[in-house]
Write a structure and sequence with these properties.
The protein has a single domain (3-262), classed as Jelly Rolls, CATH 2.60.120.620. The chain contains 6 helices and 12 strands. The chain has helices spanning 3-16, 27-42, 64-74, 214-217, 220-226, 229-233; strands at residues 18-21, 79-80, 84-88, 127-133, 144-146, 167-168, 176-180, 185-187, 196-200, 203-204, 248-249, 254-255. β11 (248-249) and β12 form a beta hairpin. It is globular. The protein starts with a helix and ends in a 9-residue tail after the last strand. The structure holds 2-oxoglutaric acid. Residues 86, 100, 129, 131, 144, 185-187, 198, 200 line the site of 2-oxoglutaric acid (AKG).
């Protein structure tokens, strides 16, 4: 992606809290990923932590213009927070609106301090959600709906009047909808006769708690294939030591070799 186009997407994030990045997955990757999601579901395998469940899902952190964009907002050591599959079948309903970061992040009700006066953190981008469209996202097939600009809204509670401002995002297969996690969003109703497939891949600043301890969950061979970048992406380079500092390899996020017998 050239610099001019990149800047346009940066501006869109600042103004609206979201953008649609083109060409994140190829046609073949979309097809493979859709087939793999169906196979996993048929085998009753949960559609979570997908990087461990199929080579095609490893692409979610290998696309240069997507990584460049995420790192622009979240820093060079931005880390993945989760990797889910989504299959929305005809007839599935509108799931309402929410913002992310409500389980382990800054939008968690229990983590709000009385001194916050009910005001959430909106000054900086703390996380971005990336929805990779494996199908065309249309007004009819259960595409994501969002409230543009809502990432700036200071309060945790979403006013009912927000529903009047929500819009359904239309995005072509292979593109990714990237939005500030403070943005109110959710899947709309699938009133079409086709299935909507997507990968939901939230990212965080390395120091924001992610949805899973991915450094522990990621399979050894997946991490190896991710190379040096993998240490940042899976949060190893920002992991809390579980040994004393002198025994700990900070970059690799594990005990130094002489203490490898203590690895958990
Ligand atoms: O499936 C969608 O369109 C929205 C997904 C969503 O709400 C989320 O990832 O938090």
């Amino acid at each position: 992606m050239d610099n001019q186009k990149f800047e346009k997407h940066v501006l869109a994030m600042g103004l609206n809290g979201y953008t649609i990045l083109p060409d994140v997955f190829t046609e073949d990757e979309c097809k493979n990923a859709r087939m793999k999601l169906e196979a996993l579901e048929a085998a009753n395998t949960p559609l979570e932590c997908l990087f461990n469940k199929g080579r095609v899902f490893e692409r979610i952190y290998q696309v240069p213009h997507l990584l460049r964009y995420l790192r622009y907002f979240l820093g060079d050591d931005a880390s993945l927070s989760g990797a889910y599959g989504s299959i929305r079948r005809p007839g599935e309903g509108d799931a309402g609106l929410h913002s992310d970061g409500a389980i382990t992040g800054h939008n968690k009700v229990d983590s709000m301090a009385r001194g916050d006066g009910g005001i959430r953190i909106t000054s900086h981008v703390l996380g971005l959600n990336v929805i990779i469209c494996l199908s065309d996202f249309t007004c009819e097939n259960g595409s994501t709906h969002i409230v543009p600009g809502s990432f700036r809204f200071p309060h945790l509670e979403i006013p009912t009047s927000a529903l009047d401002s929500k819009m359904v995002i239309q995005a072509p297969r292979g593109s990714a909808i990237v939005f500030n996690i403070n943005t109110w969003h959710g899947p709309s109703a699938n009133n079409s006769d086709s299935v909507r497939y997507a990968l939901l891949t939230p990212w965080r600043r390395s120091w924001v708690r992610s949805e899973y301890d991915l450094a522990s969950i990621v399979k050894e061979e997946v991490l190896e294939r991710a190379g040096h970048e993998g240490h940042k992406i899976f949060g190893l380079s920002s992991r809390m030591p579980y040994l004393e500092g002198w025994q700990w390899d900070r970059e690799k996020g594990k005990p130094k070799s002489e203490w490898s017998h203590l690895e958990r």
